[in-house]
Design a protein that fits this description.
This protein is α/β, with parallel strands linked by helices. The protein has five helices and six strands, in the order ββααββαβαβα. The protein has helices spanning 32-41, 43-54, 94-111, 130-143, 158-168; strands spanning 3-8, 18-23, 66-70, 78-83, 115-118, 150-155. Helix 4 packs across helix 5 (158-168). The protein starts with a strand and ends with a helix.
């Protein structure tokens, strides 16, 4: 059974097997969590991402999918990149958001990762309301069969931590 833990802090400071990156589809870095992971992890992550773009993901990583690279200078073995959906009040994209968590866990299982740190995917610049993002994240992790022993949600601030704490119970 997977243990869910919550941490308020910086995901790039976590010591885990895999850190999940809320990436943009280009895989070439960006703002928020994505930019922080690329900055702290160093150029090796970008080099791996560029190789992915040059091979399987020439048009970028599709929303809801996940792929792994080295973790570079991070205290992890891998970074699992996943592209969350942009929130829309007119279009229910919940299934895409849930897919990010399921696919990241699938990739973690393929890698043999036992500890995985997740951010609150899509809840930053992509505008997903935090309470709903937390609900989808926690429900999906609980409902997804995986060999991952610990899923650690690393939340940037007190509001995000509170939203996830209400879901974990």
């Amino acid at each position: 059974m997977t243990t869910i833990t919550l941490v308020q802090g910086d995901i790039t400071r976590q010591s885990v097997d895999a850190i999940v990156n809320a990436a943009n589809s280009s895989l070439l870095g960006g703002g928020g969590v994505d930019g922080a992971i690329h900055r702290r992890g160093g150029p090796a992550i970008l080099e791996d991402c560029q190789k992915l773009r040059d091979s399987r993901y020439g048009k970028g990583l599709p929303t809801g999918q996940a792929v792994a690279t080295t973790a570079g200078e991070l205290d992890a073995d891998w970074v699992i990149h996943t592209v969350g959906p942009v929130w829309s009040s007119a279009d229910d994209r919940s299934a895409q958001l849930a897919s990010c968590y399921r696919e990241a866990l699938r990739v973690a299982d393929e890698l043999g990762a036992r500890t995985v740190a997740f951010p609150a995917i899509s809840s930053g610049v992509y505008g997903w309301p935090m309470e709903d993002a937390a609900r989808i994240a926690v429900e999906t992790v609980r409902d997804t069969p995986t060999a991952v022993e610990e899923v650690r949600f690393v939340l940037f601030d007190e509001a995000a931590y509170g939203a996830f704490a209400r879901q974990v119970g």
